[in-house]
Amino acid sequence: MAKVSIVRCVDYDGEKVGDALFRAVGLLGGIESFVKKGEAVLIKPNLLSARDPEEAVCTHPEFVRAAVRLVKEAGARPLIGDSPGNFFTIKDVDSVYEKTGMRRVAEEEGAGLARFDKVRVINGFPVAQAALDASAIISLPKLKTHAFTVMTGAIKNSFGLIPGLFKVECHRTKPKPRDFVKVLLDVYSIRKPQLCIMDGILAMEGDGPAAGTPRKTGLILASSDGVSLDAVVSRLVDLPLHKDMIINEARRRSIGEADINNIEVTGEAIEDAKIKDFKLPKTAHNLNLLPDFLTNIFTRVIDFRPVIDEKLCQKCEVCKNSCPVNAITINGETSQIDREICVRCFCCHEVCPYKAVYIKRNLIARLLWRD
Ligand code: SF4
Ligand code: SF4
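A: This is the predicted complex of the input protein with iron/sulfur cluster.
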């Protein structure tokens, strides 16, 4: 039976996080059940972009440190690595490692830092060689909402094993969330992590994954099955099953254990750990439940789209470089999105370091999806 552990941890004090991770993994049999002495272990946090840890956009560096120490205690060799959302150059990746605290943790703990600069194509996806070479992967997702897929968790964290540019291409070819989640399950299945430990100490609700609101939730979840872990999180935040696109796709393809009745939850009970009144993103995910012809009719009257706030925009062009359909113009006079070209993948909203891209909703949309 699939197993998910839930433990409480109130903040990122190093000792408390270390103890909590030890307990969470201990409830699954201990770190030695997942990594062996001498093995190279890739620790894969969610490093969406170059943001401060307190913004709750990325897995917290003290959480990563605790995972590194667990791996070292097992006598294995930790390597930290991720491909940040829609970044392209080694310089970009280095700036993310710097800002998110990963470089400091790696140096202080004697862990390696992988840049995912080499890939091997598997099932049509360029997968980071570092992930394929590792004996084991420990995935460290962040508990967050996602404007495009409603939630992001263990399954979506594996998408970071695909280096930057190709992720943009996936958004271009799969502009609808219900198609895009198929890509997420494809990538997750290529190289499943041996262990997933979720940073739910400071979560993000609302318009995640980058422009939402940090919320103290004080939880750590762990499982060897990323699908089960995400299914439990969906219950914690009361995400209705019919809106849970990622889990429904996993169930349809029999990947992992998506049925909450077949998952043993250990440590805290789901009912005790519930995150009350968790705010989901104000996006059009309800439209994904409709057949295509109805979606097309509804999208004419329900308008959700990204808009750039010119007052906040710093003209850094990160959004422009991330747009899969070249819908963004940034120059001395203007920062604009061409709504006729935009496929509403929300990558620009996801990557803007200055929260300058917001999601504009028309009156009907605001009435349908009130806060
Ligand atoms: S909207 Fe954000 S990402 Fe785009 S140019 Fe402006 S500041 Fe940079
Ligand atoms: S403008 Fe933004 S939401 Fe629209 S396609 Fe480009 S990146 Fe995606």
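The domain at 2-273 is CATH 3.40.50 (Rossmann fold). The pocket of iron/sulfur cluster (ligand 1) is lined by residues 308, 313-319, 330, 335, 352, 354, 356-357 (CB under 6 Å).
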